């Protein structure tokens, strides 16, 4: 009996596992069947959100805010350039960073330059900000306003 268990464990250890190539193939198949957007060709324009976080992109403009209530939050707007799956964001006065874009999601890095702190009140931060696409409508993105009523992408 122990021999069978040992043989089963050895064979289990020899089974093929997911490789980067199989992940790429799976991703390519999903793109080909329009299950997911192709990040290489997807336009970034649109409105993105998750919980109380919002982000808009129109043309070269980008704006975002987080709102935790009680005047705790962040709000910023600026410009960006795209390089493949990276958005190089400049919110002014030294707040520049690279965000990840995969066609349907935008994710900011977990650590941002100290200059970005000026966009936030009290203990809020944009670090780790992540949102999902709600719409690819430019007019909806242009209409986005932060909690203080400032237009972010218009």
Output the keywords:
alpha+beta; 154 residues
Describe this structure in words.
A hairpin with a 2-residue loop joins strand 1 and strand 2. The protein is built from three helices and eight strands, in the order ααββββββββα. An eight-stranded antiparallel barrel has the order 1-2-3-4-5-6-7-8. Mean pLDDT is 86; it is low at 3-12. Helix content is 21%, strand content 32%. The chain is globular. The longest helix has 13 residues, at 2-14. The chain starts with a helix and ends in an 11-residue tail after the last helix. By secondary structure, it is α+β, with helices and mostly antiparallel strands.
Itemize the secondary structure elements and their pairings.
Layout: H1 2-14, H2 20-32, E1 46-50, E2 53-58, E3 61-67, E4 73-83, E5 86-90, E6 96-101, E7 105-107, E8 130-135, H3 138-143
Short description:
This protein starts with a helix and ends in an 11-residue tail after the last helix. It contains 3 helices and 8 strands; from the N terminus they run ααββββββββα. It has helices at 2-14, 20-32, 138-143; strands at 46-50, 53-58, 61-67, 73-83, 86-90, 96-101, 105-107, 130-135.
Assembly type:
single chain
The residue ranges in which pLDDT falls below 50 over 5 or more consecutive positions are 3-12
Mean pLDDT value: 86
Q: Largest sheet, if any?
A: 8 strands, antiparallel, barrel
What's the helix-strand series?
Answer: HHEEEEEEEEH
CA radius of gyration is: 21 Å
* Total helical segments: 3
- Principal-axes geometry comes out as globular
């Amino acid at each position: 009996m122990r021999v069978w268990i040992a043989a089963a464990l050895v064979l289990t250890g020899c089974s093929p596992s997911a490789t980067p190539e199989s992940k790429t193939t799976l991703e390519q198949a999903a793109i080909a069947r329009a299950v997911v957007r192709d990040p290489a060709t997807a336009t970034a324009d649109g409105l993105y959100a998750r919980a109380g976080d919002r982000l808009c992109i129109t043309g070269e403009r980008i704006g975002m805010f987080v709102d935790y209530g009680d005047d705790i939050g962040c709000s910023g707007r600026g410009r960006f350039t795209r390089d493949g799956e990276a958005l190089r964001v400049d919110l002014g006065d030294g707040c520049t960073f690279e965000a990840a874009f995969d066609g349907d999601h935008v994710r900011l890095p977990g650590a941002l330059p100290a200059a970005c702190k000026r966009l936030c009140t009290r203990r809020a931060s944009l670090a780790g900000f992540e949102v999902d696409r709600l719409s690819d409508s430019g007019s909806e993105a242009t209409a986005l306003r932060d909690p203080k009523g400032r237009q972010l992408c218009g």
